[in-house]
Amino acid sequence: MSSPAEAAKSLWSSVDANPTELEHLQLHGTDPVLPSSFALGGAAVGCVGTVSLSAACFLGERTGRNTPDRAILASADITEAAISFRSERYLRINGSAPGALWAPLSGDFPTSDGSYVRIHCNFPNHALAALKAMGLPPTADRAALAAAISVRRAQDVQESVEANGGCASCFQTLAEWKAHPQYSSLLSVPPISVTQLVHSPPKSLPPPSNRPLSGIRVLDLTRVLAGPVCGRNLAAYGADVLHVSAPHLPALPSVDPDTTIGKRSCHIDLTTEEGTETLRNLVKDCDVFLQSYRPGSLAARGFGPADLASINPNITYISITAYGSEGPWSHRRGFDSLVQLASGIGHEESVRSGQGGAAPRALPCQALDYATGWMAALGTIEALRRRAKSGGAWLVECSLARTAIWLDGLGRVEQGFDAKDIDAQKLEHMLESIECGMGVMEHVKMPGRVEGERPAWALPPPTALGEHPATWW
Predict the structure, then answer these.
(1) Order of strands across the sheet with 168-170?
(2) What percentage of the chain reaches a pLDDT higher than 70?
(3) Which DSSP symbol is given to 19?
(4) For residues 405 and 327, is the Cβ–Cβ distance under 8 A?
(5) CA 292, CA 25: separation in Å to the nearest integer?
(6) In CA terms, which of 45, 335, 416, 455 is 20 to 30 Å from 135?
(7) pLDDT of 70 strictly over 70
(8) CA dihedral sign, ordered 82, 230, 442, 93
(9) Which secondary-structure segment (H or E) carries 217?
């Protein structure tokens, strides 16, 4: 098993940051923190720690402060990090959970070939697609869906659901995943890819007060869960984050308040000429463009990396995908739970927990989503640091499947399933209540420290998506 320090080092190396800067990072705690065979605590604290360090370094560069040798600029605690990787579980509005985290039709279903397939139906359009693929009416329930799936092969179900615009994944072993061409394609890129799009002069920023990203403008065109986590993190460090949705896109009240805290939210309909022009105007004055659409989707509308670099030669473009931007699976829709099955994680957890691998077992948190969101934030801040020094527009790419490979590479935790869940006292330390338009919201605090201070959000979440104008402030 890799240590938290080794997890952090691997991420720092992924973005090609100065290795000596790691001397200024302090990590606390070791695995196991959550019941799992995977090093979830180490992964979480490695992510939180490196983002905290990058923010601290950027703050020092913007203020011109010299860093004493071996001074601790950033720190992170493994339990706090693990709690933050499950923040959606702890969200409460006026004392109650705002909704179920999983839709009735989402889940793992046994198939006729003795395997399983997972269907993701948290969005209504994906639920309708799954039902249509199985020849069922829109009103069919879970029992009817299970019966229809049970007489089909897992691969056939996956292909049919995806052909109808839905989201599904077959249950694979780690060996099967490693033999797949998509695995080989992903191995050719680092967990966090940072590349320069165009050359341009450095962009100066006014010195911040005590928030590393103050004055940084971020357009956040993401939904569930990695992308919104990235934007939420940037907001906690002081960035002005404008979340962009559209009236025809479904909301998820069970998680949206947790991931839109610190952001403003507007509606822009990119199917209209007016909406396209509005977004282009916002791009001209933004620093970061964050999106999690499938590869090619936004480029088809004129909002690919090269398109935006031509509009704004100082932009940092963040692209988060399920299976990467290249390879035979790059076009596939995907979510954390689906990638867990496809990448062998569900099988590994089942085997190592004593369940034998006959049925999948999920991780105790959506680690691929959260880790990818933090990795994207690390890539973003490192790209901004490069822009400040040498200029240019930058492209940052992360994917859930590449994160799964990174997590697997951290090794396994002996007796990991002996770990108890987060106890109430430690959890209470990480919760705070704020007033918002929905009432009183209890949520998880931001983990990590920058120069001894915990980052925090300056704004409550919007009462509803789209409540703010599509303008900068």
Answers:
(1) 107-110, 116-119, 168-170
(2) 100
(3) G
(4) no
(5) 30
(6) 335
(7) no
(8) negative
(9) strand 217-221
CB 174 within 8 A of CB 348: yes
What distance in Å separates the CA atoms of residue 247 and residue 345, rounded to the nearest whole number? 36
Q: What is the DSSP letter of 412?
A: B
Bridge-based pairing of strands 288-291 and 116-119 is unpaired
> Which of 297, 233, 289, 240 has the alpha carbon at shortest distance from 265?
240
Sheet with 25-28, edge to edge strand ranges:
25-28, 74-77, 449-450
Do residues 154 and 204 lie in contact, with contact meaning Cβ atoms separated by under 8 Å? no
CA–CA separation, 6 and 432 (whole Å): 31
Residue with tokens 């697609």: 129
Residue tagged active-site, from 77, 220, 240, 369: 369
CA distance 228 to 236: 12
pTM of the model: 0.97
d(CA 243, CA 279): 12
Residue 256: active-site member:
no
Task: Give 453's DSSP letter.
Answer: B
pLDDT in tens, 368-406: 999 999 999 999 999 999 999 999 999 999 999 999 999
Angle at 106 (CA atoms; ends 104, 111), nearest 5 degrees: 115
84 backbone dihedrals φ, ψ, rounded to 5°: -65, -25
Determine the 3-state secondary structure of 441 from DSSP.
strand
* Helix boundaries (H) for 19-133: 40-63, 78-84, 124-133
Measured in residues, the chain has a length of: 473
Q: How far is CA 128 from the centre of its chain?
A: 25
Write the pLDDT tens digit of every residue in 434-449: 999 999 999 999 999 9
Candidates 319, 320, 321; CA nearest to 329 is 321
CA distance to 166, 253, 268, per residue, from 441 (Å): 33, 13, 27
| Tens-place pLDDT, residues 19-36 | 999 999 999 999 999 999
Q: Measured between alpha carbons, how far is residue 432 from residues 8, 10, 70, 315, 450 in Å?
A: 27, 32, 33, 34, 19
**Secondary structure of residue 200 in the 3-state scheme:** coil
Peptide bond before residue 384 is cis, with ω within 30 degrees of 0: no
